[in-house]
Each structure stands twice: as C-alpha cells, then as structure tokens.
Write a structure and sequence with these properties.
It is a single chain. By secondary structure, this protein is of the alpha+beta class. It contains 11 helices and 15 strands. A hairpin with a 4-residue loop joins strand 3 and strand 4. The longest helix has 13 residues.
Length: 337
C-alpha cells in the first residue's frame, strides 16, 4: 500500500483547528462522552475478559538552554543511555558541533557525538535527575503552546508506575481512564494487567516513503512478562477477549507473540503493523484518533480493515471528533466495527 492512502487534508485541517488548550479542556468531558461515554465502555466488558495497559511513566523530557555561543537551544530527550549520557533531538539556529558546551539552567553538558538526526549529550550526573528537576512536559509537536501546570497531571495515566519513568510521550488512550472506571471494570470479573513500553519521540514521525513496506519504523524498548502471556492464553482458552489500551500496549503484546517458543519478551522492537498483519493476541483495541500518514493509523487499519478505517475517520472528521493526544477515543473489534 502507499503512504498516500493514509492521508486526509480535511483531517489535517480539523486538527489544526483543535490545537488550543482551552478547546481541549473545555470539551474534555464532552469528548469522553462522545467516544467512550465511560458507562457505555464499561458495558462492553464481561466476566473473563483481560485488559492490558502500558504502565510507563513520562519523563519531563523537554529542556531549554543555550550554547556557549549564546544561541538558544531546545533539547528533546529520546532515551537515557549508559555513563550519564542521553540521546536527544536538538532544535537551534545551527546544529551544535561535536564538543559544543550547552548550558541547561545551571547544568553544563557537552555534545559528544551524533547519530543521524540525534545527538548524544554527556551529563555530569544521571540525566534523569536533571530532566526531573528542570524539564518540561513533552507535549506532542502538534500542540502549539508551552506546557502548563495542568499538563503535569493530565499528561499521564492513573496506572503509571513512577518507577518505570522511561517514556517521552504518554500512552494517551489511557488518559481516558480514571480509578473509578478501572475499579468498575475489575468488578465485572475482568483482570487488568500491565506491560511496559517506553514511548519514544519516533511515535510522532510520519511515514515518508511511497510504499509503506519500505518504512524504517522507530524502535522502542518493552517488557512483557511470562505471567502476562499466561493470562492471555488462559483468557482465550476460556472464551474471553483480550483488550489493549492504546497502540503501545498492542505493539508490546504482539511483539511478544513473534516468537512463541519464548514466553514473554524483554528488549527493543521494530514491529511495524500495517494492513495484512494478522493479530496474534489482541481482540479489542481502545485507541485515540491518529495523525494521517502515521504508523499508528496504519496499525488501526490493520486491526479493523482499511475500508472500515476510512469509514470511521470520515465520521470522526464530519462529526468533528477530537484527534490526537487530548482527543477522543474509540473501541474497535479486530476486523469489525
């Protein structure tokens, strides 16, 4: 298939109209009602089902600073590395050279290497400590405003594990859940389990090649325990369904089923799910509305079928559902609506 098959100029126009924080906040409860109606979502679960969530926690991954020349820089974390190093994106008037000193508040770091469009910075102490002290909430690039105090609470799930602070973007389908809803779902006899996938900035990158099969998808680190696989198998053997909250939990679980001779998975994945892929574990998917030409939209298309995807997104555009991180969600059944 071609990347242009997943484009929509009208959807892009709608999304540009919905980038104001006031719009997101004012319509938040209405948005949830439109797509989930929390109680309606609750009605779709039954005793014996399994709900899989991604319990990652978001790092305040955006830093502002200056180069030794005085030029302003913005540093966006991709991932923490060993030896007090970090792989980052840097926005500045001119790309820093190897050896350049960068001043982030009272901290001095050095650019020691470059990997494609990424830079490696050397810190004098664990980078995570510095990001937590002076970092900003890494709102997605399509939200054209600075982060605010509201985002510190809003841009994270109620089931995040603070000990697994390893993502630079939130698994945003999970933002629709609160503790009361999870308690109600659990009360139906639904088991809730966690996987962990470190969401990288690559999740926002559009597919740019003409043929989607030629796309070099971003890698992400994940962990799926053998116990989770046991629960998936038990659920299916008893006629239950496996629900995932978001594309990240889906990518994690499906990665763990690539090699069934090994139970569970720990490591990086480059699994690219697009039409033609056969899902091994996931039966039901709760996900937000995604960017045109994104790998996430292609995953949705693989899950429910390309024509069904087009129908759903046409409805979303016509009804002005809210796209992306602070937007609406939908519940999908594998290859059906």
């Amino acid at each position: 298939m071609k990347t242009s098959d997943f484009d929509s100029k009208k959807a892009q126009k709608i999304m540009k109209e919905l980038q104001s924080l006031k719009q997101w906040v004012r319509d938040y409860k209405k948005a949830v009602t439109l797509c989930e109606d929390l109680e309606v979502l609750y009605d779709y679960f039954k005793d014996g089902d399994l709900l899989v969530v991604n319990n990652t926690s978001v790092i305040p991954a955006r830093l502002h600073g200056r180069k030794e020349s005085g030029g302003v820089v913005e540093v966006m974390l991709e991932r923490i590395m060993e030896d007090n190093q970090a792989l980052v994106q840097i926005r500045s008037g001119r790309s820093p050279k190897i050896g350049t000193k960068i001043y982030l508040d009272s901290y001095e770091v050095e650019c020691i290497d470059r990997q494609g469009s990424f830079f490696i910075l050397q810190f004098n102490e664990p980078p995570l400590n510095i990001f937590n002290k002076i970092g900003h909430v890494p709102l997605p690039p399509y939200i054209k405003r600075p982060d605010e105090d509201l985002d510190k609470d809003r841009y994270g799930t109620v089931y995040e594990d603070k000990n697994l602070q390893n993502s630079v973007a939130a698994p945003t389908a999970g933002l629709h859940f609160d503790k009361e809803l999870l308690k109600a779902i659990k009360g139906l006899g639904v088991k809730i389990v966690s996987v962990n996938l470190s969401v990288g900035a690559g999740t926002f990158q559009p597919v740019k090649v003409e043929d989607i099969k030629d796309h070099d998808i971003h890698s992400e680190y994940l962990e799926v325990s053998p116990e989770v696989i046991d629960l998936v198998e038990e659920t299916k053997s008893k006629g239950g369904r496996v629900f995932t909250v978001g594309t990240t939990a889906t990518r994690a679980l499906e990665t763990a089923y690539i090699d069934t001779s090994i139970k569970g998975y720990r490591g990086y994945t480059k699994l690219f799910i697009y039409p033609g892929y056969s899902f091994k574990a996931v039966d039901m998917l709760i996900t937000n509305f995604h960017l045109p030409q994104s790998s996430l939209l292609m995953l949705v298309s693989a899950f429910i079928g390309y024509e069904n995807m087009k129908d759903i997104y046409k409805t979303a555009v016509d009804e002005k559902y809210r796209f992306l991180s602070y937007g609406d969600a939908m519940l999908l059944k594998n290859h059906e609506i």
